[in-house]
Write a sequence for this structure.
């Protein structure tokens, strides 16, 4: 891994003008929130306490219902960092590899994986770019044979996570800035490159490349994609459109998930 936070699982010949494809993670490549799957897997191993996982789920619920405002992003970041604070880098790496096989692999969107494979078949670089923890992003990128991953990095000290953020939370404009930095570092021509996301919060990234795609888009991104003439790929088998909108529906689904998780945790402690 380089000092810039880049985790690579493959290499390609150097040279200017190469092309790449950049994929968001949650709801674009993986159904749902990857940090939730990480927390669930860590809890099953006794690494993560019930208190921490319930607090993380609560922050996630607030985040989904109220949207990605500054305060809610702070809550999401606190949740993300609290999950692994105090843990050793080695145990998190080992657990994340196992959690990929147990929980994440079956939640990959086959259609999105196929899109990535198309870029790989054309000898293009393929990068995972996400606000999710770097540890999760690295494992998924490696398993899928991507060139590498850019994720949010947690600070480390003496082999343990401190619970503080290192660098930027890769979200919104900061995600686009990280991709721009990577492109300069590796000689990638963004005008000939592609990006895929489900969220309107990734508009800075989508507008940075010459080939933006909306994948399983939220309402705002779908509207923007239609206005701009961007391709839309929706791999969801069924969507429930209710009067209070997609955000409300997402909040409701998350609420059910929280209640279900609480019940399972209570049963496990009996």
């Amino acid at each position: 891994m380089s000092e810039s936070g880049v985790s690579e699982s493959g290499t390609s010949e150097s040279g200017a003008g190469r092309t790449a494809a950049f994929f968001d993670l949650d709801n674009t490549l993986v159904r749902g929130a990857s940090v939730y799957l990480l927390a669930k897997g860590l809890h099953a191993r006794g690494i993560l306490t019930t208190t921490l996982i319930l607090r993380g789920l609560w922050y996630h619920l607030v985040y989904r219902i109220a949207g990605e405002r500054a305060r809610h992003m702070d809550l999401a970041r606190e949740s993300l960092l609290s999950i692994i604070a105090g843990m050793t880098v080695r145990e998190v790496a080992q657990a994340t590899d196992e959690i990929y096989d147990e929980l994440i692999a079956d939640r990959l969107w086959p259609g999105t994986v196929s899109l990535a494979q198309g870029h790989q078949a054309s000898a293009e670089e393929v990068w995972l770019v996400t606000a999710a923890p770097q540890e999760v992003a690295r494992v998924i990128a490696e398993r899928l044979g991507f060139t590498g991953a850019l994720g949010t990095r947690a600070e480390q000290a003496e082999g343990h996570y401190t619970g503080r953020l290192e660098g930027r939370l890769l979200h919104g404009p900061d995600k686009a800035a990280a991709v721009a930095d990577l492109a300069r570092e590796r000689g990638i021509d963004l005008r000939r490159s592609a990006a895929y996301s489900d969220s309107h919060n990734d508009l800075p990234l989508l507008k940075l490349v010459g080939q933006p795609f909306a994948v399983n888009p939220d309402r705002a991104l779908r509207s923007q994609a239609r206005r701009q003439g961007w391709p839309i790929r929706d791999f969801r088998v069924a969507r429930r459109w209710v009067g209070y909108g997609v955000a409300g529906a997402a909040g409701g689904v998350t609420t059910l998930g929280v209640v279900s998780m609480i019940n399972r945790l209570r049963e496990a402690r009996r």
Notes: The CA atoms of residues 121 and 160 lie 38 Å apart. Residues 1-5, 9-15, 238-270 have pLDDT under 50 and may be disordered. The chain has ten helices and eight strands. The longest strand covers residues 148-157.
